Amino acid sequence: LIADRQEGIGVCGWILISLSFLLVLITFPISIWACIKVIREYERAVVFRLGRILSKKAKGPGLVLILPCTDTFIKVDLRTVTCNIPPQEILTKDAITTQVDGVVYYRIHSAVSAVANVTDVHLATFLLAQTTLRNVLGTQSLAQLLAGRKEVAHSIQAVLNSATEQWGIKVARVEIKDVRIPVAMQRAMAAEAEAAREARAKIVAAEGEMNASKALKQASVVLAESLAGLQLRYLQTLTTLAAENNSTIVFPLPINMLESFRRKNTGG
């Protein structure tokens, strides 16, 4: 779409340009105020001469010379633009309806392409961002969307960069702001998470009981080898109970002692 400044103008074009120069010289220095334009540091000017783009590279920043009657120009802002994507109704891969909104940060890196290749570069980028968000998230499940927001955002950014390259657009960053799911689905997910936590708690409790039973078995084997050790354990238990200021102390008595007393009474 970009024509060379010395080709395709024709004889009539050169005549008009010569007359424009002549008009500037005749009305100088008054015409200088209409010919010189100031372009800011963050702007670039795309100059059209007789309807054709004057150069493959935009002009600026600084002073730009514009010929009256033959030249027109369009200013292009090169600063980063924030594109807020409104909430989009999306059907995920696992058939769950969600509302997702996001934000896209982009800037124009080629002012000539942004002017010559698309009618409204900002509107086109905004509509493409909405469509890309729906298309990419439609291939993801709800779990992938909730757990991998950064990966999804990078995928959207790559698609946008590929599509907007010919428009002179560079997408700097894509962020997913919020993911809204139906209330019924929130309750179902909460119930599922609670059930999973209860199952894990039961498994942990069962493992604790198993370890405790193994420890008790080992302790019983050790105590069975020494009767004095068993009595010391009794005394330690009594000391623990007495430290708690209890009025009643239960003293364990071996059953075999009662059996020996019963046999003596029977023999007597």
Question: What do you see in this structure?
Answer:
Helix content is 51%, strand content 22%. The chain is α+β, with helices and mostly antiparallel strands. The strands form three sheets. Strands 3-2-5 form a three-stranded antiparallel β-sheet. It has a three-stranded antiparallel β-sheet with strand order 6-7-8. The protein has a two-stranded antiparallel sheet with strand order 1-4. α4 (121-137) packs across α6. The protein starts with 9 loop residues before the first helix and ends with a helix.
Number of helices: 9
What structural class do you assign from the helix and strand content? alpha+beta
Give the proportion of residues in helices.
40-55%
Assembly annotation: single chain
Indicate the proportion of strand residues. Answer: 15-25%
Biggest sheet: strands, sense, closure? 3 strands, antiparallel
- Biggest sheet: strands side by side, in what order? 3-2-5
Count all strands and give the number.
Answer: 8
The unreliable regions are 1-6
Radius of gyration: 42 Å
Distance linking N and C termini: 126 Å
List the helices and strands in order: HHEEEEEEEHHHHEHHH
pLDDT averaged over residues: 82
The best one-word shape is rod-shaped
